[in-house]
Design brief:
The chain has eleven helices and seven strands. Strands 3-4-2-5-1-6-7 form a seven-stranded mixed beta sheet, sandwiched between helices. The longest helix is centred in the C-terminal third of the chain and has 16 residues. Bound molecules: adenosine-5'-triphosphate and magnesium ion (MG).
Length: 259
Protein backbone atom coordinates (compact mmCIF):
# COMPACT_ATOMS: atom_id res chain seq x y z
CA UNK A 1 0.00 0.00 0.00
CA UNK A 2 1.17 3.52 -0.81
CA UNK A 3 0.74 6.23 1.77
CA UNK A 4 0.61 9.80 0.54
CA UNK A 5 1.10 12.63 3.01
CA UNK A 6 1.24 16.34 2.19
CA UNK A 7 3.21 18.76 4.34
CA UNK A 8 1.32 22.00 4.51
CA UNK A 9 1.26 25.33 6.35
CA UNK A 10 0.80 28.57 4.45
CA UNK A 11 3.09 30.30 6.92
CA UNK A 12 6.60 30.60 5.49
CA UNK A 13 9.70 29.15 7.07
CA UNK A 14 8.07 26.85 9.63
CA UNK A 15 10.00 23.73 8.60
CA UNK A 16 7.85 22.14 5.87
CA UNK A 17 10.76 21.42 3.56
CA UNK A 18 13.17 20.42 6.33
CA UNK A 19 10.58 17.99 7.67
CA UNK A 20 9.68 16.61 4.24
CA UNK A 21 13.20 15.72 3.18
CA UNK A 22 14.47 14.51 6.55
CA UNK A 23 11.40 12.45 7.30
CA UNK A 24 11.60 10.95 3.80
CA UNK A 25 15.31 10.23 4.23
CA UNK A 26 14.66 8.29 7.43
CA UNK A 27 11.70 6.44 5.95
CA UNK A 28 14.06 5.36 3.17
CA UNK A 29 16.75 4.44 5.67
CA UNK A 30 14.23 2.31 7.51
CA UNK A 31 13.61 0.34 4.34
CA UNK A 32 10.65 2.15 2.83
CA UNK A 33 10.48 3.04 -0.86
CA UNK A 34 9.97 6.77 -0.55
CA UNK A 35 9.32 9.60 -3.00
CA UNK A 36 9.60 13.32 -2.26
CA UNK A 37 7.40 15.53 -4.46
CA UNK A 38 8.57 19.13 -4.61
CA UNK A 39 5.41 21.15 -5.17
CA UNK A 40 7.06 24.50 -4.38
CA UNK A 41 8.40 26.80 -7.14
CA UNK A 42 11.13 27.84 -4.68
CA UNK A 43 12.45 24.27 -5.18
CA UNK A 44 13.98 24.09 -1.71
CA UNK A 45 13.34 20.36 -1.34
CA UNK A 46 15.00 19.82 -4.72
CA UNK A 47 18.12 21.79 -3.83
CA UNK A 48 18.21 20.38 -0.29
CA UNK A 49 18.56 16.95 -1.90
CA UNK A 50 21.49 18.15 -3.98
CA UNK A 51 19.73 18.83 -7.29
CA UNK A 52 20.23 22.14 -9.09
CA UNK A 53 16.75 23.26 -10.18
CA UNK A 54 18.20 24.92 -13.28
CA UNK A 55 19.19 21.49 -14.58
CA UNK A 56 15.71 20.01 -14.17
CA UNK A 57 14.26 19.02 -17.55
CA UNK A 58 10.97 17.56 -16.41
CA UNK A 59 9.50 17.51 -12.95
CA UNK A 60 6.43 18.50 -10.97
CA UNK A 61 5.44 21.19 -13.48
CA UNK A 62 5.20 18.81 -16.44
CA UNK A 63 3.53 16.18 -14.27
CA UNK A 64 0.79 18.63 -13.27
CA UNK A 65 0.17 19.77 -16.82
CA UNK A 66 0.06 16.20 -18.20
CA UNK A 67 -1.61 14.55 -15.20
CA UNK A 68 1.08 11.90 -15.45
CA UNK A 69 4.61 11.30 -14.15
CA UNK A 70 7.05 9.93 -16.70
CA UNK A 71 9.84 7.69 -15.32
CA UNK A 72 12.40 10.20 -16.65
CA UNK A 73 11.02 12.88 -14.31
CA UNK A 74 11.95 10.96 -11.17
CA UNK A 75 15.49 11.30 -9.88
CA UNK A 76 16.75 8.42 -7.77
CA UNK A 77 19.46 9.11 -5.21
CA UNK A 78 21.48 5.89 -4.85
CA UNK A 79 23.23 6.92 -1.67
CA UNK A 80 20.00 7.81 0.08
CA UNK A 81 17.84 5.20 -1.71
CA UNK A 82 15.36 8.05 -2.10
CA UNK A 83 13.36 9.27 -5.11
CA UNK A 84 12.55 12.89 -5.96
CA UNK A 85 10.08 14.50 -8.32
CA UNK A 86 11.90 17.83 -8.63
CA UNK A 87 10.53 21.33 -8.92
CA UNK A 88 11.83 23.90 -11.36
CA UNK A 89 11.27 27.63 -11.78
CA UNK A 90 8.60 26.94 -14.43
CA UNK A 91 6.38 25.61 -11.65
CA UNK A 92 5.66 29.23 -10.68
CA UNK A 93 3.68 29.54 -13.91
CA UNK A 94 1.47 26.58 -13.00
CA UNK A 95 -0.40 28.67 -10.43
CA UNK A 96 -1.72 30.80 -13.32
CA UNK A 97 -1.73 28.24 -16.12
CA UNK A 98 -3.86 25.74 -14.20
CA UNK A 99 -6.63 28.26 -13.51
CA UNK A 100 -8.43 27.57 -16.80
CA UNK A 101 -7.71 23.84 -16.93
CA UNK A 102 -10.34 21.15 -16.41
CA UNK A 103 -9.92 19.22 -13.19
CA UNK A 104 -7.19 21.57 -12.10
CA UNK A 105 -7.38 20.53 -8.44
CA UNK A 106 -6.90 16.84 -9.26
CA UNK A 107 -3.78 17.07 -11.39
CA UNK A 108 -1.30 15.91 -8.76
CA UNK A 109 -3.59 13.18 -7.45
CA UNK A 110 -3.99 11.82 -10.99
CA UNK A 111 -0.29 12.15 -11.73
CA UNK A 112 0.65 10.24 -8.56
CA UNK A 113 -1.68 7.40 -9.56
CA UNK A 114 0.72 6.70 -12.43
CA UNK A 115 3.60 5.89 -10.05
CA UNK A 116 2.23 5.21 -6.61
CA UNK A 117 2.49 1.41 -6.77
CA UNK A 118 6.26 1.78 -6.71
CA UNK A 119 6.35 3.55 -3.35
CA UNK A 120 5.47 2.85 0.24
CA UNK A 121 5.54 6.56 1.10
CA UNK A 122 5.07 9.72 -0.94
CA UNK A 123 5.68 13.05 0.85
CA UNK A 124 4.58 16.25 -0.87
CA UNK A 125 6.24 19.54 0.09
CA UNK A 126 3.91 22.55 -0.39
CA UNK A 127 4.73 26.22 -0.99
CA UNK A 128 3.81 28.78 1.69
CA UNK A 129 0.44 29.68 0.19
CA UNK A 130 -3.05 28.26 -0.11
CA UNK A 131 -3.22 28.58 -3.90
CA UNK A 132 -3.90 25.97 -6.55
CA UNK A 133 -0.59 24.17 -6.00
CA UNK A 134 -1.32 23.61 -2.32
CA UNK A 135 -4.91 22.61 -3.13
CA UNK A 136 -3.45 19.97 -5.48
CA UNK A 137 -1.30 18.82 -2.58
CA UNK A 138 -4.33 18.56 -0.28
CA UNK A 139 -6.44 16.65 -2.79
CA UNK A 140 -3.55 14.20 -3.35
CA UNK A 141 -3.01 13.60 0.39
CA UNK A 142 -4.66 10.18 0.50
CA UNK A 143 -3.61 9.48 4.12
CA UNK A 144 -3.73 13.08 5.29
CA UNK A 145 -1.76 16.21 5.89
CA UNK A 146 1.17 16.73 8.20
CA UNK A 147 1.35 20.28 9.56
CA UNK A 148 4.72 21.56 10.77
CA UNK A 149 4.32 24.28 13.39
CA UNK A 150 7.25 26.37 14.54
CA UNK A 151 7.61 26.76 18.31
CA UNK A 152 7.51 30.55 18.36
CA UNK A 153 5.32 33.46 19.31
CA UNK A 154 2.00 33.36 17.41
CA UNK A 155 2.62 29.77 16.37
CA UNK A 156 -1.11 29.12 16.02
CA UNK A 157 -1.76 32.25 14.02
CA UNK A 158 -2.88 31.35 10.52
CA UNK A 159 -3.79 27.79 11.45
CA UNK A 160 -7.46 28.81 11.48
CA UNK A 161 -7.14 29.76 7.84
CA UNK A 162 -5.47 26.44 7.09
CA UNK A 163 -8.24 24.56 8.91
CA UNK A 164 -10.80 26.50 6.85
CA UNK A 165 -9.08 25.59 3.60
CA UNK A 166 -8.94 21.93 4.65
CA UNK A 167 -12.68 22.17 5.41
CA UNK A 168 -13.41 23.61 1.98
CA UNK A 169 -11.40 20.88 0.27
CA UNK A 170 -13.29 18.31 2.34
CA UNK A 171 -16.70 19.65 1.38
CA UNK A 172 -15.98 20.32 -2.29
CA UNK A 173 -13.22 17.98 -3.45
CA UNK A 174 -12.07 15.28 -1.03
CA UNK A 175 -14.39 14.41 1.89
CA UNK A 176 -11.89 12.00 3.47
CA UNK A 177 -9.08 14.53 3.82
CA UNK A 178 -7.73 14.42 7.36
CA UNK A 179 -4.97 15.82 9.50
CA UNK A 180 -2.48 13.01 10.13
CA UNK A 181 -0.55 15.05 12.63
CA UNK A 182 1.12 18.26 13.73
CA UNK A 183 4.93 18.34 13.99
CA UNK A 184 6.48 20.85 16.37
CA UNK A 185 9.67 22.29 14.88
CA UNK A 186 12.57 24.52 15.96
CA UNK A 187 11.92 23.79 19.61
CA UNK A 188 14.33 25.51 21.99
CA UNK A 189 14.07 23.90 25.43
CA UNK A 190 15.75 26.88 27.11
CA UNK A 191 12.83 29.21 26.51
CA UNK A 192 9.55 29.28 28.42
CA UNK A 193 7.90 30.42 25.22
CA UNK A 194 8.71 27.20 23.37
CA UNK A 195 7.31 25.13 26.23
CA UNK A 196 4.16 27.27 26.25
CA UNK A 197 3.75 26.76 22.51
CA UNK A 198 4.01 22.99 22.92
CA UNK A 199 1.20 23.10 25.51
CA UNK A 200 -0.90 25.47 23.42
CA UNK A 201 -0.61 23.41 20.25
CA UNK A 202 -1.44 20.21 22.17
CA UNK A 203 -4.55 21.90 23.58
CA UNK A 204 -5.58 23.08 20.14
CA UNK A 205 -4.99 19.72 18.42
CA UNK A 206 -5.63 17.15 21.17
CA UNK A 207 -4.21 13.74 20.30
CA UNK A 208 -2.99 14.98 16.93
CA UNK A 209 0.49 16.23 17.81
CA UNK A 210 3.46 13.94 17.14
CA UNK A 211 5.38 13.14 20.33
CA UNK A 212 8.67 13.55 18.46
CA UNK A 213 9.53 17.24 18.66
CA UNK A 214 12.21 18.69 16.38
CA UNK A 215 14.71 20.88 18.25
CA UNK A 216 16.31 23.98 16.83
CA UNK A 217 19.64 22.74 15.51
CA UNK A 218 22.33 24.47 13.54
CA UNK A 219 23.15 21.16 11.81
CA UNK A 220 19.63 20.99 10.38
CA UNK A 221 20.02 24.48 8.97
CA UNK A 222 23.44 23.69 7.49
CA UNK A 223 22.62 20.38 5.81
CA UNK A 224 20.71 21.82 2.79
CA UNK A 225 23.74 23.80 1.65
CA UNK A 226 25.56 20.47 1.29
CA UNK A 227 22.60 19.00 -0.59
CA UNK A 228 22.18 16.37 2.12
CA UNK A 229 19.48 15.34 4.56
CA UNK A 230 20.51 15.25 8.21
CA UNK A 231 20.76 11.43 8.10
CA UNK A 232 23.79 11.81 5.81
CA UNK A 233 25.16 15.18 6.97
CA UNK A 234 25.18 14.78 10.76
CA UNK A 235 23.63 11.43 11.67
CA UNK A 236 24.43 11.71 15.37
CA UNK A 237 23.11 15.26 15.86
CA UNK A 238 20.00 16.02 17.90
CA UNK A 239 18.13 16.97 14.73
CA UNK A 240 18.92 13.60 13.19
CA UNK A 241 17.70 11.76 16.28
CA UNK A 242 14.47 13.79 16.23
CA UNK A 243 13.69 13.05 12.57
CA UNK A 244 14.49 9.36 12.97
CA UNK A 245 12.17 9.29 15.94
CA UNK A 246 9.46 11.06 13.92
CA UNK A 247 9.83 8.54 11.09
CA UNK A 248 9.52 5.65 13.54
CA UNK A 249 6.48 7.26 15.17
CA UNK A 250 4.79 7.71 11.80
CA UNK A 251 5.54 4.12 10.77
CA UNK A 252 4.28 2.77 14.08
CA UNK A 253 1.08 4.80 13.80
CA UNK A 254 0.62 3.48 10.28
CA UNK A 255 1.04 -0.08 11.47
CA UNK A 256 4.27 -0.61 9.52
CA UNK A 257 6.84 -2.68 11.42
CA UNK A 258 10.54 -1.95 11.05
CA UNK A 259 13.74 -3.12 12.75
N1 LIG B 1 14.87 22.48 13.49
C1 LIG B 1 15.52 23.45 12.87
N2 LIG B 1 16.59 24.04 13.45
C2 LIG B 1 17.25 25.05 12.83
N3 LIG B 1 16.94 25.54 11.64
C3 LIG B 1 15.88 24.99 11.00
C4 LIG B 1 15.13 23.93 11.58
N4 LIG B 1 14.14 23.59 10.72
C5 LIG B 1 14.28 24.40 9.66
N5 LIG B 1 15.32 25.25 9.83
C6 LIG B 1 15.76 26.31 8.90
O1 LIG B 1 14.74 27.30 8.88
C7 LIG B 1 14.52 27.76 7.56
C8 LIG B 1 13.08 27.46 7.14
O2 LIG B 1 12.89 26.05 7.12
P1 LIG B 1 12.15 25.36 5.90
O3 LIG B 1 12.72 25.81 4.61
O4 LIG B 1 12.13 23.90 6.18
O5 LIG B 1 10.70 25.95 6.09
P2 LIG B 1 9.49 25.96 5.04
O6 LIG B 1 8.25 25.96 5.86
O7 LIG B 1 9.66 24.89 4.05
O8 LIG B 1 9.71 27.38 4.34
P3 LIG B 1 8.90 27.93 3.05
O9 LIG B 1 7.57 28.30 3.59
O10 LIG B 1 9.71 29.07 2.55
O11 LIG B 1 8.81 26.79 2.07
C9 LIG B 1 15.54 27.06 6.70
O12 LIG B 1 16.66 27.89 6.57
C10 LIG B 1 15.89 25.82 7.49
O13 LIG B 1 17.20 25.36 7.22
MG1 LIG C 1 9.65 25.02 1.97
Amino acid sequence: MTRIYTLVNQKGGVGKTTTTINLAAYLAKLGQHALVVDLDPQANATSSLGVDKRTVQTGTYESLLNGEITPASILFNERLQLSLLPSSPSLAGAEIELVDEMGREFRLKTALESVNKKYDYILVDCPPSLGILTVNGLVAAKQGVIVPVQCEYLALEGLGQLTQTIGRVQSLLFPDLRVRGVVLTMFDPRTNLANDVVKEVNNHFPGQVFKSVVPRSIRLAEAPSYGLPISAYAPTSVGATAYESLARELLKGDGVSVK
